[in-house]
Write a structure and sequence with these properties.
The protein is α+β, with helices and mostly antiparallel strands and 80 residues long. It has helices spanning 27-34, 39-48, 50-63, 69-77, and strands at residues 3-9, 12-18, 23-25. The model has no long low-confidence stretch (mean pLDDT 86).
Length: 80
């Protein structure tokens, strides 16, 4: 069963989601630090960043055995 814990960073509570082997930090909680009322805008802008897309692709290559490299290249090279 997954458990969660929180940490306090600069006065903001950040949720850490735990499962048997991994920990995941809540991006929504981190985005609240920038703008508590528009967290979705902060995350959308982060996701559009080319460096973020490249990082996500690298992550998938490492941890997703079904990762589709060719499809990702087309997505990554698409102009935003």
């Amino acid at each position: 069963m997954a458990k969660n814990k929180t940490i306090n960073v600069k006065g903001i509570e950040i949720t850490i989601f735990l499962n048997e082997q991994s920990e995941y930090i809540s991006l929504t909680d981190i985005a609240r630090y920038k703008d508590i009322e528009r967290t979705e805008t902060i995350i959308q802008n982060w996701i559009r960043n080319r460096n973020t897309i490249e990082l996500l692709g690298f992550w998938e290559q490492l941890y997703n055995p079904d990762f589709k490299h060719i499809e990702f290249e087309g997505f990554k090279n698409k102009q935003v």
